[in-house]
Amino acid sequence: MRQRIATRVGRSLVVVETKDITHFSAEEKYVTAFTSKGQIHFEATLKDLEVEFAEEFVRIHRSHLVRRSLITGLRWKAYAVSIGLAGTSIRLPLSRNRASFIRELLNAAPANAQSIGMVSHIAEPSATSAQQHAAH
């Protein structure tokens, strides 16, 4: 596993320590690595990064990998699910087919979840919102 990710920005070489990366997001053939200090764009695939960083990052969506230790909980809004990142106001979409895996991940580490404020359950949508959705 790499300790750093480097990319060219103009004539400069920008280097980010992988330990500082909170999450990766993909768009077309580029990936953006996010840190608390900013972000860098580089050419890669999330699939390759998912394999390389499997111990520390988990795929939550076709476009996002998140550092496992930073997942703070799951939130339903209507019928969409999102996760939060510890220490930030960032919420990222969680694909429905990954929701049960992430819930299991949160439940598997209750001591760790308690220490960083993870929510170990998914709040189900209210009956009213389910009725409204069914009416459409």
UniProtKB/TrEMBL annotation:
The keyword Magnesium does not apply. It comes from the Bacteria. Residues 5-108 form the HTH LytTR-type domain. One of its GO terms (molecular function) is DNA binding. The keyword Lipoprotein does not apply. Keywords: Two-component regulatory system. PROSITE patterns: HTH_LYTTR. Pfam families: LytTR. This is HTH LytTR-type domain-containing protein. It comes from Pseudomonas knackmussii (strain DSM 6978 / CCUG 54928 / LMG 23759 / B13).
